[in-house]
Design goal:
8-stranded mixed β-sheet, globular, ATP binding, membrane, AAA+_ATPase, EC 7.4.2.9
């Protein structure tokens, strides 16, 4: 049985112009210790999906349909008290900017002890021992000294390590990391991602990594979900998606990587932009930007087609697979 099972999830936002759907028919599984990447441009719905798992969607947003099963409980219907017992305890979240996550007027130690005492009946000394141990796990030098320091006294990379240590405090089953290396330089990004993978493997913690960087996904995850305009358009083993992307959008993301461009020439890019939620095109949402779009793409929403070990929502892939099956039957 999967550790986390999301079934037909939909998230809606009530606006003056009417209700719009930020997520549509999202379904996937996550096993214990498995690392999953959520990929797509800004506005694809990646962060909304991460927030919805922990029921952090603020009004006027709401989970309008679907189920989020974790350890026999549907998190979508859980009471405020019930979700608080899971949030930060069994499922932790790492946000983009550690300075927005950490309280600037409390020491690192105060914040870590407060987190532990919110979920466990534990003394200050016992909580401090656990906190210092977690700081050591993320390779913070002089952890006893850092325990008494304020966030502004630490570098960006150090603050992000502390946020990871806080996420690990209560030995969670799942960590959701929302663009955890965005504010860091390239060398520190690599160190933080290596650290997260090492910690997840060592503690058998599942990871949901939200990012727009396929390069990071290729190195850190085992499965990948590609999102576009609030829908999943391709999902499967990371290696298969990276080496043989099937959906035209995923292919465009791969071609946009800097290493795919010819030196001295402009970087490749996908023409156009992600449509706003109020004006998502009929049929396949990607069809106005797709070089292979045909009439069916403009009329009908594509269903998932299996390609190897991947699932792809594309009319062109479905037609190609059907032709291959016809040839094999001849």
């Amino acid at each position: 049985m999967a550790l986390l099972e999301v079934k037909n999830l939909e998230v809606s936002f009530g606006l003056r112009s009417g209700e719009v759907k930020a997520l549509r028919n999202i379904s996937f599984n996550l096993d214990r210790g498995e690392r999953l990447g959520l990929v797509g441009e800004s506005g694809a719905g990646k962060s909304v999906l991460g927030f919805s798992i922990l029921n952090l969607i603020s009004r006027p947003g709401r989970i309008s349909a679907g189920e989020i099963w974790f350890d026999g409980q549907n998190l979508a219907n859980l009471s405020a008290e019930g979700i608080r017992a899971i949030r930060g305890n069994r499922i932790s979240m790492i946000f983009q900017d550690p300075m927005m996550t950490l309280n600037p007027v409390l020491t690192i130690g105060q914040q870590m002890v407060e987190c532990l005492q919110a979920h466990r009946k534990i003394s200050f000394d016992a909580a401090k021992t656990i906190a210092v141990q977690k700081l050591k796990q993320v390779y913070i030098p002089s952890p006893e000294t850092r325990f008494d320091q304020y966030p502004h006294e630490l570098s960006g990379g150090m603050r992000q390590r502390i946020v990871i240590a806080i996420a690990l405090l209560l030995d969670p089953d799942i960590i959701i990391a929302d663009e955890p290396t965005t504010a860091l330089d390239v060398t520190i990004q690599a160190e933080i991602m290596e650290l997260m993978v090492e910690l997840c493997e060592r503690n058998n913690v599942a990871l949901i990594l939200i990012t727009h960087d396929l390069g990071v996904v290729s190195q850190a995850t085992q499965k990948t979900i590609v999102m576009y305009a609030g829908r999943i358009i391709e999902q499967g083993p990371t290696k298969e998606i990276i080496n043989d992307a099937q959906h035209p959008y995923t292919q465009g993301l791969m071609n946009a990587l800097p290493q795919m461009a010819i030196p001295g020439q402009r970087l490749n890019q996908i023409r156009g932009a992600m449509p706003p939620l109020q004006r998502i095109p009929t049929g396949c949402a990607f069809n106005p930007r797709c070089d292979y779009a045909e009439e069916a793409c403009k009329r009908e929403l594509p269903t998932f087609t299996r390609s190897g070990n991947c699932q792809v929502a594309c009319h062109m892939v479905a037609a190609m697979r059907k032709a291959e099956q016809t040839q094999e039957g001849v």
